[in-house]
Design a protein that fits this description.
Number of helices: 4
Helix content: 25-40%
Radius of gyration: 14 Å
Strand content: 25-35%
Order of helices and strands: EHEHEEEHEHEE
Structural class: alpha/beta
Distance between the termini: 21 Å
CATH topology: Rossmann fold
Shape: globular
Largest sheet: 8 strands, mixed
CATH architecture: 3-Layer(aba) Sandwich
Mean pLDDT: 93
CATH superfamily: DNA polymerase III subunit chi
Strand order of the largest sheet: 3-4-2-5-6-1-7-8
Low-confidence stretches: none
Number of strands: 8
Length: 150
C-alpha cells in the first residue's frame, strides 16, 4: 500500500507542483492519473504539460489511446483510469478512496491553503484515509521549499 501525500499549497500554485510530481513519478517508472473536478482547470494543466520546456507526454481521458498514456488527465467520477496508474494526483478536492491508495504506489492530494473550503475537504480526506489505515504525510511549502511536516 502506498502513502497518501497531502500537499498544502501556500506559496505556489498546483500548476508549478504538478509537473514536478509527474516527472518524479515517471522517473520511478509509474504511470500517473491526474484527477480533477473542473474541465477548464484540467484543460489548463493539459496545455501546461504540452507547452512547458521538457513537455510531459499525456492524454485526456476519452481518447483512443488512454491505456497507453503515461499520464492520463481524468475528471472525478469517470471511473478507473484506463492507463493503470501507479500514482494518483488529485486536485481541487477530487475524491480519493482508501481502496485506491492500497492499489497505488503513491497518492498525492493537492489543496489550496488560502481556500477554507479546500482545507475542509483535505482535512476530511485525511481523517477518512487514515481511519482506513492509509499512511498519510503532510507536506508544506510555507518555508519556501517543499518539506515534510511532522
Amino acid at each position: 500500500m502506498g502513502a497518501a501525500l497531502f500537499y498544502h499549497l501556500t506559496r505556489s500554485p498546483a500548476e508549478s507542483l504538478v509537473p514536478v510530481l509527474i516527472e518524479k513519478s515517471l522517473a520511478q517508472g509509474w504511470r500517473v492519473e491526474l484527477r480533477g473536478t473542473d474541465t477548464a482547470r484540467l484543460a489548463r494543466h493539459d496545455d501546461l504539460l504540452w507547452t512547458r520546456e521538457g513537455f510531459l507526454p499525456h492524454g485526456r481521458a476519452g481518447g483512443p489511446h488512454d491505456a497507453r498514456q503515461p499520464v492520463l488527465l481524468t475528471l472525478a467520477g469517470e471511473g478507473p483510469a484506463a492507463n493503470a496508474p501507479a500514482c494518483l494526483i488529485a486536485l481541487d478536492g477530487a475524491p480519493v478512496e482508501a481502496a485506491e491508495c492500497e492499489r497505488l504506489e503513491r497518492t498525492c492530494i493537492l489543496f489550496d491553503g488560502a481556500d477554507p473550503a479546500a482545507l475542509d475537504v483535505a482535512r476530511g480526506q485525511w481523517r477518512s484515509l487514515t481511519a482506513a489505515g492509509v499512511t498519510a504525510e503532510y507536506w508544506s511549502d510555507a518555508d519556501g521549499g517543499w518539506a515534510r511536516q511532522r
